[in-house]
Design goal:
This protein is an alpha/beta fold. The chain has seven helices and eleven strands. The chain has helices at residues 46-65, 85-91, 106-114, 118-125, 137-143, 173-182, 198-206; strands at 9-16, 19-26, 29-34, 37-41, 76-79, 99-103, 130-134, 148-153, 183-193, 210-217, 225-231. A hairpin with a 2-residue loop joins strand 2 and strand 3. It is globular. The protein starts with 8 loop residues before the first strand and ends with a strand. It holds the Pfam family Spermine_synth. It comes from Streptomyces incanus. This is Spermidine synthase.
Length: 234
């Protein structure tokens, strides 16, 4: 027998600058859909939290490798607000100094500030360290004069599976040079992916990143999620 939860309930549907974005409820879960492609939901958050933790651990390791202690109050950029897991996890960690979130979809920002996703991010958004910037991440890292100790990027399903065609530039040699430009010496680039990309590891090395590695995140079934990591030389 079917139940009311068999069909997701659409809570909001908007035409954004990059196409249609939808927020829907499926049982107890909230889901974000972009141009018909499932992006994420509120079922777990393990991968998003691991993205932030892996970046901080790699940053501390790079500082130790360089011969000095962990830096104080590092500034992290989170690329993609999503359902808010990465932001909430970063705000729960006292080590981070400033937390900048870059999100290009006004609807997603609205859902967090005054919508159903506020329950996940309300406390983090009230944190004085946190700031949301409405911008396309590819453009932002190319143009900003700000600098960061870590970039935690989760705007696609991975370097080989982008949500929109323009995002591919972020993982190109030019995009990675922009990432390196906004990183402080010894800063860390962390990129979430739904599957490993050996080609991307090579691209990171060719772009000048050091200590390149891929950390797996076990999932219930199928290929594990991963975080690709690289360090800007000091």
């Amino acid at each position: 027998m079917s139940t009311p939860y068999d069909i997701p309930e659409v809570l909001d549907r908007r035409e954004g600058p990059y196409g249609e974005v939808v927020l829907r409820r499926h049982g107890s879960l909230l889901q974000i859909i972009a141009n018909g492609c499932f992006l994420m939901d509120t079922s777990d958050g393990r991968s998003e939290r691991r993205l932030v933790d892996a970046a901080l651990a790699a940053l501390d390791a790079a500082d130790t490798h360089a011969g000095h202690g962990p830096r104080q109050d590092p500034h992290v950029l989170i690329g993609g607000l999503g359902v808010g897991f990465s932001l909430a996890h970063a705000a729960a960690a006292p080590r981070w100094g400033r937390i900048t979130v870059v999100e290009r979809e006004p609807a997603v920002i609205d859902w967090h500030r005054a919508g159903p996703l506020a329950e996940l991010s309300e406390r983090a958004l009230a944190d004085p360290r946190a700031k949301i910037v409405e911008a396309d991440l590819v453009t932002y890292v190319h143009e900003t004069s700000d600098t960061f100790d870590a970039l935690c990027l989760d705007i696609d399903n991975g370097p080989d599976w982008t949500v929109t065609e323009g995002n591919g530039g972020l993982y190109s040699p030019t995009g990675l040079r922009d990432c390196a430009r906004v990183l402080t010496p010894g800063g860390v680039l962390a990129v979430w992916s739904a599957q490993p990309s050996t080609d991307f590891e090579g691209t990171l090395r060719n772009a000048g990143f050091q200590q390149v590695r891929t950390e797996e995140i076990p999932v219930a079934r199928g290929v594990p999620d991963v975080v690709h990591l690289g360090v800007r030389p000091g």
